[in-house]
Amino acid sequence: MKKKVFALLLCGLPLLINAQDAFDVLQMSQTELRGTSRFQSMAGAFGALGGDLSVLTQNPGGIGVYRSSDLGVTFSLDFNSTKSGVDKMNETKFNVNNVGYIGAIRLDSEVMPNLNFGFTYNRINSFNRHYIGAISNIPYSMSNFIADEFVNVNPYGPYNALDLYWDDSYNPYFDGYAPWAAITTFDMPTKNGSVGIINVNEDGLLQGLYGRDTYGDAYYEIEERGHADEYNIAFGGNLANKLYWGLDFGILDLDYRSYQSYVEELQDAHVAIDEEDVFTTPIVSDNTRADWGLYNYLHSEGTGVNFKLGLIWKPTQQLRIGAAFHTPTYYDMRDTYFLEADLKAYQDNNLLYSAYKGSNDGYDYSSNYTIKTPWHFIGSVAGVIGTNAIISMDYEYVANETMRVGDDRGNDYPDVTYNIQDYFKPSHIIRIGGEYRVNPNWSLRAGYSYKTTQVEKGVDNYDYNISTVGTNPTYQYDNTVQNFTCGVGYRYKSFYSDVAFVHKMRESVYNAFSPISDGDLYFPNVSADVKDNNNRISLTMGVRF
User: Fold this and answer.
1) DSSP secondary-structure letter at 177?
2) Rounded to whole angstroms, how far apart are CA atoms 34 and 54?
3) Residues 292-326, buried b or exposed e (16+ Cβ, 10 A)?
C-alpha cells in the first residue's frame, strides 16, 4: 500500500475537539452591565439598595426591600463599534434585557413584615462583535507555530518527517495532534505525493512556510454572535426592617457562534515542489509566494444552573450594607465545529499548486462537555443623603482561576485546569452610582464601573506558550472594561418609566496564535489591539401595585 500522509486522512480530528480551552471558557463566563434602565443608569451599583428587578442577578437580598409588587420590561438598542488597527466595524442590535415580576406578601408580623418572591429574565451577556484587521510585516507565521507544536511541544517527543507517514488509516501515536495534522498537508489529486503549510527540509525536519528571508502580511476577521440569558426564581424577606435576605436559583441558556478567519500572504516563502516521492520533495524559497488561510466555525450551546445568596443590613436610616455570594454556573455544553484551509503556492508568479481541505468531508463535528464558571463575591455600601439623594458603591471579586472544563460526566480535564491556573487571576469590578430625586415624579441618575484584566502579567507580556484546543490557535481576552452611564426616571402613581444611556469602552487583545519560546530564544506571535466603543439606549416600563 502506498504510504499516505497522516494529515490527509482526518481520521483523528475529533480527538482534540472534545472540549473548549481555557480562553474559550473565559469568554463564555463573562457578564456585562445589563438589566433594567434604572440599574444600568447607576452602573449596576445596587448591591446595597435592592428594590429593582435586576437585583436577582446581583444581590438577591434586594428582593426583601420590596413592600409592593412589581411588574416590568426593559428594551434596548445597542450601537456597537469595534476597531482593530485602522478598520472599524459598526452594527446595531435590538435586545430585550429584562422581564420580571416581584410579588410582595405582607405579613402581620413585626419580626418579618414581608415575604416576597420573584421571577425574572435577564440577558447577562451579548457576544455580538465583529472586527477585521491587517498586520503588515508579520514577524512569524502560524505555519511555523504549528510545526513547533509537532517538534517541540508534544509530550511524545519531537516528530520528524518519517513520523508523519504510515501504512494504515489510523495511528494512535498521534492522539491529540491529529487536528493540527489535518490542516498541515493537502492531497494533490492530479499528482503523486503531497504538499502543505508544513514541509520536510533537506535535514528531514519539519518546518513552516516562514524562513530567514521570508516576509509578508496577515489578515484576520472575527465575527461572534450569541447571548447568555438567565432565568431567576427567588424569594426573600426582611427581619424587623433591618436585615433583608434573599435566595436565588438561576437557570442559564448560552448560545455562542463564531467565525474566525486568518490569512497569510508570504513572499520568499519556503514552499515544497510536489514530486512523486514526498521524502525527496525539495523546499524552495527563491522568488516564491504562499497564500494560505485557516477558517474555523464554532457553535457552542448549553444550559446551566447556579445559586445566589444575598443580604442587606440597614443599621441606620441613612446607611445600608450589602453582601452576596454567587456559586459557579455549571453548564452542560455541546459544540458543533467545522474547519477549512486553503493554500496557493507560486514561483516566478507561476502557480505551482492550489489546494483546499475541509474537515470531515464537509460535515460538522460535535462534542459534549461541561464548564464551571468562576464564583463571585460582592460587597456593597449605600448612603441616603437627605431626602432626595442616594449614592452607592459595589466591589465584586471574580475568581477566574477557579474555572474548570470537563467531560460530559463532569470529570475535569487536568491539562485545561493547569492552564487556567497559569493564565488567569482574579478580576475586580468597582461600580459607583448615584440618584437625585428632582421632585416626586422625576429622578436623575449617573454611574461608572471599571473591570480589571483577568489574565496574568505573563500572558499580556507574551511570556507563555498558550495551549488551545482543536485547530484554532486564536485566543483573545479583555484588558479593561469601563462603563459610563446616566439616565432619567419618571414615576406617576403606580406607573414608572426609566431611560438609560450606557457607553461601554472595552480594550482587548487578539492573538492569532501563541508566542513560541525555546529557552532564551523568543519567537513573537501575530497580535493586535481591539477596542470597543459601544453605546446603548434602554427603556424600562413597569407598574407597582
Assistant:
1) T
2) 8
3) bbbbbbbbbbbebebebbbbbbbeeeeebebbbeb
Q: Is residue 365 part of a domain?
A: no
| pLDDT at 174 (0 to 100) | 43
Does residue 178 register a pLDDT over 50?
no
Would 171 be classed as within a structural domain?
A: yes
Identity of the amino acid at 83: K
Contact 360, 339 (CB under 8 A): no
β-bridge pairing 389-398 and 376-385: antiparallel
Are 274 and 352 in contact, with CB atoms under 8 Å apart?
Answer: yes
Number of structural domains (the chain) is: 1
**CATH number where 57 lies:** 2.40.160.60
Tens of pLDDT along 499-512? 999 999 999 999 99
User: Distance between CA 402 and CA 328 in Å, rounded?
Assistant: 9
Q: pLDDT tens, 435-480? A: 999 999 999 999 999 999 999 998 888 888 888 876 788 999 999 9
pTM above 0.85, yes or no: yes
Residues 384, 70: Cα–Cα separation, whole Å: 23
44-66 burial string, b = 16+ CB within 10 Å, else e? bbbbbbbbbbbbbbbbbbbbbbb
Residue with cell 463566563: 29
Which domain range does residue 326 map to? 4-358+370-544
